[in-house]
Amino acid sequence: MVTWNVMLTGLFKFGQLEKASLLFDEMPERDVVSWNTMISGYASNGFVGYALGVFGEMQNASVKPSAYTFSIVMSCISAARQGKQVHGSIVRSGLNLSNVVLSNSLINMYSKLDIIDYAFGVFLTMEELDVISWNCLILGCGKSDYGQFGLVQFSSMRSSGYSPDQHTMSIVITLCSNLRALEKGKQVFGLCVKLGFHSNTIVTSATIDLFSKCSRFEDSVRLFEEIQIWDMALCNSMISCYVRHGYEEDAFWLFVMTLRASFQLTEFTLSSILSSASCLVSVEQGTQIHSLVLKLGFEYEAIVASSLVDMYAKVGLIDSAIRIFGTMTSKDLISWNTMILGFARNGKELEALKMFEKLLEQGVLPDRITLAGVLLACSHRGLLNEGCVIFSSMKEKYGVIPETDHYACVVDMMCQAGKLTEAMQIVETMPREPNIFIWESLLCACRTNNDLQVIERVAETVMKLEPHIYLPYLVLAQAYEVRGRWESVARVRKAMKDRGIEKLSDCSWIGIKNQVFIFEENPVFLSESEGVYLILRLLFREMVDEGYICEFCANTAIDYG
């Protein structure tokens, strides 16, 4: 029996799942270890469904599961109903629930399933606790959006005489990070220093994330630079920090350093670096990372696939985004949201609305980001009626309370339709203070409005929010000029000059390898401008020879650049 079980374990260890299954069928006798090996082997290789199937066969074969059997099975559970059934099986099997390992597995399972009250029920009935018990409970609070309650449990843990380990401290710092509780997080990190955990990369990674989310970028960089030995978890946090604060080049530099150090890349690393690639001008970096994703076999990871869709959508390659979205085996709400926003931002507003309808047909409940993407599509397309219907039914139909970004889309739709009065009424009834985007929409609509008081009010508000924007001064000057108020026009222009406000020129750019070429209205600002003009002259000459334009037009175009 021992020999058969050892052979079975070896086959799973080397990934020979089919041979392991055949061997298991040929075994003349099986004990609980044999069944556990099969369940564990399938689970560790990602075949969760097969693992649960073997567990069902084990019960049909009247083999009594052990505590280890249930701990493996609980790690495979993904539905609340299944979890409760397994819990019932444990009770019926007569196993002692005071077993710390078994109870900890139950707490962890219920926390993962977002059933925190059941996790507490198991915790409170345990006769003996250990640090893992507390860690599972506190982590469950964080996953179930009870972060503040998790901090209370951490205080109870310490007052009960239990010493936290590095995993406890990492979990608690993550709770503070999610709550944006910087001061509490700093106190916890101070305790880490006192306990000697400050050099632990798990704790440091969580602390870097805390500083990053609480807008303390410099502190994140300083802490990262103080660490002598890097690992992938630490680099993941720092790459994410760089991307969050707009330092995409630094994120790429650190990513290259991890490749050179032969670190084991994770799906979180690739997702973060793809986010930075979508912010760069050159598409080459993004496609190179996509190739790396394929090479490492991460293309079916939901978080990586969603990041690929987002990257291609942001750089305008919407067809590539559609293709990747279509190959995704499992689509979560983030994936749907990314695709809807991608359509809305790339001039495919009707496709965004169709995607929204497909999401609803799948029985997926939209969130605030989904509805913001749909309203953005309606705004870009000028679909005022459709947008207003969705906006008015957000709370009742989907349980989403409208926020500032939703109001911004509706106000923009109103302004495009020439309904400035209605847009102003919406702004005045908003539960929150309007942002700069809402006021800019109103300001653009003011150009065709005859009410000078409204124009002055909106323009002055934009000036207060963004003092260096050119638009409010332009709108005011035009309004005064139309009414013949030349003194007011002169006053506006003097205010612009005193504040150093200049009109921004339209520009476009193209990235070739590591160099970005910027083209403004006039002239062309780049190092090889003479070469560019030379190529343009050659192109104009060829167009003349082919008969597309006349000689006079070509000379005029060349003279004016």
From TrEMBL:
PPR repeats lie at residues 1-30, 31-65, 130-164, 231-265, 332-366. Keywords: Repeat. It comes from the Eukaryota. GO terms for molecular function: RNA binding. GO terms for biological process: RNA modification. Pfam families: E_motif (PF20431), PPR (PF01535), PPR_2 (PF13041). PROSITE patterns: PPR. InterPro entries: E_motif (IPR046848), PPR_At4g14850-like_plant (IPR046960), PPR_rpt (IPR002885), TPR-like_helical_dom_sf (IPR011990). This is Pentatricopeptide repeat-containing protein. It comes from Thalictrum thalictroides.
